[in-house]
Amino acid sequence: MPARLLALLLACVLPVATLADKRPTLNVYTHPSFASEWGPGPAVKTAFEAHCNCTLNYVVLDSGGDILQRLRLEGEHSKADVVLGLDTGTMEAARQTGLLASHDIPLQGLALPVDWSDDLFVPYDWGYFAFVYDTEQLPQPPASFEDLLAAPEDLKIIIQDPRTSTPGLGLLLWMRHIYGDQAAEKWAQLNKRILATTKSWSDGYFSLFMNGEAPMILSYSTSPAYHMAIDKTDRYQAAAFREGHYLQVEVAARVRSSGQPELGRTFLQFILTRDFQRHIPLKNVMYPVIELGEELPEVFSRLIKPTETRYFEPATVAEHRRAWLDEWLDAMTR
Amino acid sequence: MPESIRSSTPRHPDAPFSNPGWQLWPGLLLASLLLILAGGGLGALFWQAELPRVAVLWENRYLRNVLSFTLWQATLSVALSLLLALPVARALARQPCFPGRSLLLRLMELSLVVPTIVAVSGVVGVYGRQGWLTTLVNDWAPALSWNLYGINGIVLTHVFFNAPLAARILLQTLENVPQPQWRIASQLGLSSGWVWRALEWPALRPVLPGIAALIFTLCFTSFAIIMTLGGGPAATTLEVAIYQSLRFDFDFGRAALLATVQLLICGSVWWLASRRGMTHALVPGRQVAEQVPRKDGSGLRGLWDRLLLLTFTLFLIAPLAAVALRGLPGLVSTLTQSGSGGRLWDATLLSLAIAIPAGASSVLAALLVLASNGSTQKGIPGQISATAAYLPLMVPPLVLGTGLFLLLRPQLGVTSEGLILVGLINSIMALPFVLQMLRGPLRGLDIASIHQADQLGILGWYRWRWLHWPRMRRPFALAMAYATGLSLGDFGVIALFGSPEEPTIPVLLYQQLGSYQMAAAAGTGLWLITVLLAVFALFNLLGRPPATAHLREPEHA
What we know:
The structure holds two protein chains of two kinds. Chain A folds into two domains: 21-126 and 248-302, Periplasmic binding protein-like II (D-Maltodextrin-Binding Protein, domain 2, 3-Layer(aba) Sandwich); 127-247 and 305-333, Periplasmic binding protein-like II (D-Maltodextrin-Binding Protein, domain 2). Helices cover 38% and strands 20% of the residues of chain A. Chain A has 14 helices and twelve strands. In chain A, strands 1, 2, 3, 4, 5, 6, 7, 8, 9, 10, 11 and 12 form a twelve-stranded mixed β-sheet that branches. By secondary structure, chain B is an all-alpha fold. Chain B has a single domain (20-543), classed as MetI-like (MetI-like fold). Chain B contains 24 helices and no strands. In chain B, helix 1 (20-48) packs across helix 18, helix 4 (101-113) packs across helix 24 (518-543) and helix 15 (338-376) runs antiparallel to helix 16 (380-388). The longest helix of chain B is centred in the middle third of the chain and has 39 residues, at 338-376. The chains are: A alpha/beta, B mainly alpha. At the A-B interface, helix 1, strand 2, helix 4, strand 7 and helix 9 of A face helix 1, helix 5, helix 11, helix 12 and helix 15 of B. Chain A: Residues 1-20 form the signal peptide. Chain A: This is Thiamine ABC transporter substrate binding subunit. Chain A: One of its GO terms (cellular component) is outer membrane-bounded periplasmic space. Chain A: Pfam families: SBP_bac_6.
């Protein structure tokens, strides 16, 4: 028992063992899809370390929400130098913590569908939310939200919960952007189409969609790129909706309390170079934020091209998120 | 070592750990530590936030719905799990020679520790819209119009997880009924109804409230199952609402309020259960080697038993088979590729390195808690240690983690020291299960043996070694297997503390899921199940008494 207590105490109190390495370490808080073996993380680390004379260290937290949460909890004592993996849904909340520092990097000429001139956040990739469908089960997907709402009874979709998942929140904002104050009504209609509202994208994609439970799932317009390029199958495609698609931009920022502001800034600059961006298309399965030209994989030319970009300013999202969520809950549980 | 030492007993100072203090204090200290952890975690949230309005609980329609739905699905799941577990446990006890019995037992052990996402994928593969059973039902009995999504799926999956656990503990209880009693029942030719009234019910009654409370708490705090199969936000548990408040709204006050409600409800269920005799000793008994033939297990009854067990086996094996079928191609290609096979192996080693110590410390902690429980019986310290051990089930890990983070803020590292913490928290989370497995057998020693031991001065370590250990061996191994298995399959805790660069098996699984590696993920899921099965088989082997010439062991649990 005393040994157990001691172990607990040691584990809690012992300062983190510092690396014997003399080179400075840049701590980046990120999420698993970036840092994992299959994500862009390892390749980015190699590329950055080749120039920076430093060690790039990923601290992997469960999701973008967790990164923000951890940052809040740690406050001024955070070990993070850079956070990477917040998005347009969470960045305003992150800004309001006052824990982030401005980047002073010119952001002109980015390959984004919207103008980007944020002083805190550097975008590192972007994509559209879309419904991915199984062409074998559903040869003729709905071509708009209106079609989806009017689809026959047996067309079922899988979505994610906006309370727990980024794409889930994306769909909420998408509907809101299209329908405004009528969104609640449309949600009540959509409810008849919904087979499951899962906690995370993975739960829905792995347990339900890949088991053939429903022919459509809320995902990204870029998802088919992975299936086409890596899985070598054209079976899964994104349905283009006439009303346009909602934009998600993933961002990185420097942490104000960081002891290495210059190194952090160098990393943020590195994000906007080819050495970083070339790993985005197939490893993060999103669009790069600069023109890659020839280096953009061929499958990306076969993706849907939304006619209209649906997008709320992050400040607007932060202001209304709670009210819109409550409205959604009300519509779905009535 | 739970029994109090009579004051008239001559003290033998040379027996290690024979001081009564050894029974009481370590367990009590542990229990207090748990109380402080839970209280501290929750308290830190309240302290950080302004106090929420309690009235929101009944004024807000959504929260009212959440609360009533949570209660409803948990109660239904408990009832159905027990309704299935009771006949299965009785049939298993009646049929010690049922072919494939030991496979069925391993399956029963496995079902609780399979990670949710893997199990749900298996359940969907069988009962989902495209599941093979659904297809069969639709062909043969279309009028049934079975639909997995909604309360059906939630309860079905909860039963899949919990009925085997309940049946496993009930079976262990039945097997501890002394053989002479079975022999008398057999000689009298008692029918199964009479055996139930005279032997089985009296033996099972004391453990049922505890099992019910355990399942209730597990279902009450269920999260991913509810969200994946519930169909929509109309099916939401308090745990989901807590997660939302903490993670998305940063509303610490509301999270703490909801967590308190959860704690109060589950806490009162446990309190009720403990008043209903959870701490009663089981029917005392001494082990007699020979196996008594069960007359009530033959004929038509025997046929019925076999049918029931076969159906139950299919119920458990079908989703796992779906997982295996789906995962096999991915696993084969992972294992045959040089890089990825090594990665899986590393993950397995790391998982075991966390899970086995976690399992061992969980079992040790359970023994200490039980000892202090027994030595104080009715006093307040006993009550504290009886309840505190179940706290880890009732306080959402996210609340606990966030609260502790607020308390320890500047010191908490996210590097490999975190792994020790993960192991410790895993062992604490397994404590409630381990307690259920060890309580009965530890209390099962008859008064006569205890008196004799007291008079002979067999105390402390020696009492443990010579009186308890021989009968504890098997429950001990089972408890160890469960605790290790729970830690092996854990994703929540390790994700909370920031996953290490080297992933454990579940972390690897989630990494693959997040990177579109669906086939590889299915393979990893299958691998995880294989490792879990191996762990259960190994501990079962270790739990067998050493072969002695005159001891012929039946095919036992």
